[in-house]
Amino acid sequence: MTFSVTILGSNSALPTSERYPTAQVLNVSERFYLIDCGEGTQIQLRKYKVKFSKINQIFISHLHGDHCFGLMGLISTFSLLGRKTDLHIFAHPDLEKIVNPQLEYFCKDLQYKIIFHHINPKENKVIFDDKQLEVSTIPLKHRVPTCGFLFKEKKGLNHIKKEMVDFYQIPFKKIHGIKKGEDYITPNGEIIPNNRLTLPENKPRSYAFCSDTAYTESIVPIITNVDILYHESTFLKTDQKLANQTTHSTANQAAVIAEKAKAGKLILGHFSTRYRDFKLFKTEAEEVFKNVELAIEGGVFHIPYKNIRLAGY
Amino acid sequence: MTFSVTILGSNSALPTSERYPTAQVLNVSERFYLIDCGEGTQIQLRKYKVKFSKINQIFISHLHGDHCFGLMGLISTFSLLGRKTDLHIFAHPDLEKIVNPQLEYFCKDLQYKIIFHHINPKENKVIFDDKQLEVSTIPLKHRVPTCGFLFKEKKGLNHIKKEMVDFYQIPFKKIHGIKKGEDYITPNGEIIPNNRLTLPENKPRSYAFCSDTAYTESIVPIITNVDILYHESTFLKTDQKLANQTTHSTANQAAVIAEKAKAGKLILGHFSTRYRDFKLFKTEAEEVFKNVELAIEGGVFHIPYKNIRLAGY
Prior knowledge:
Shape of chain A: globular
Oligomer: homodimer
Low-confidence stretches of chain A: 308-313
Strand content of chain A: 25-35%
Helix content of chain A: 25-40%
Distance between the termini of chain A: 14 Å
């Protein structure tokens, strides 16, 4: 059961020949959730071999070009690839207004539906859930309405102990109920309590994406105990003034948020092109928070289960 | 005096991790003329070290996404780089209608002017000229209104012979007039005819860009004797049916056009992703026309002067 995030692009507004504008893809059991869609996202998806057909949801944090200019190209490519499945785009309502005239002009013969889900970046709210995942908005502080996204795996089933299945000769049809928490009643009427038959489920995993934003502690309660926090750090603290002016964060501020939120790991990204040595971001953040990584294109961050149990079923 | 074309992208509609949608840049004496602007053009411009500030004209052949989805990103980047110079975009009138709402939303604070020049893809007409270059439209045959562009260097000045300047002690202020064709009158009243003082100018160079199009001989008179012809070849002739259905050309057809037009060189591009081995395009075209190259990203095609003379001034 994979739960990993791949960095497709993580530069700030100005891309370079190696660094792309913001886009990430979260892989949850081989379903791919796209987060932001800067120019060239489809090229990066190919490069890192993400299956286009497994993307059904796109989450757009805000309507600056470096977070959404890749959408039209991706939508067209989906069409050329013969897509039939609905595509769900979660974004500020303005996106639909901007994209619709382009769809009408460039994609008249689209064979699949695009469904826009209007989100309010100012509120912390569940905007999507499926069998395995729940996604909620994280209000951020930027020049235009912006939110991050918290991806939380859903509570799974308990693990049944194989040796107990063998010992009690539990029939197959009873297994699912026991995984869900039921006791087992033997043919003789003996009640075997659930906690003798099972081990607790795996702890649900979580990922928080927070870009772009000025330092804001208001997000801490929402992301507390997240396994991985991606937090933008456009600047170093020597350029705090610039960060304030442009409503971005420094590596130091991102680390303070990670520390306060007791995050498992902090990924820094959205670096300004003014810096040549990105290691400085890691060094600066590590003064405050220990587990820091840099969001470089192609980087894959896996979140393993914390309490993996080997169960028979 | 450079006259060269750099391929930024030359795949057909579906980009891959290495191959970008259509964009090329023509370098005429270090002024850069952008031709089409598929997604990722700005990334390719960086990769091939084209100076953004030297691009003042963009020519868009037609309004399919793979020829223009990179425009908004490039316009935004120009703005972030502090551009103040006007940007001229030559395209079908619909482009302005599509781009304007996006400019209003994403680029409210643009510090430079964008001037749209509406072109009629159905007519062969000069749409731009400056000191060094003249650009005219080449009507093409495609599913939407489409034209190619013929770039022709302007007639230059004659070359003055250094030994004649020395012999007659021609004063500096007379040089420009003689280069333009004037005779020289010595202080004694002797008339020295221009053809004794000069050698003919360099032959003006030319480049024709023809994408996307079905086979159409109507373009031959417009591009006759062009130094380099870029002609799309989306398909091989084994897929002639597909070429016809989609109003594209085969490598064979592109070569026939090059042969009929007596082009100096043929560059093939816009290959469908269905083919793995692009050399097949070259082989097929070479059966008809000798001087064939493939448009691969990063390829630079120089057009040297045919009659270079070393002149003193």
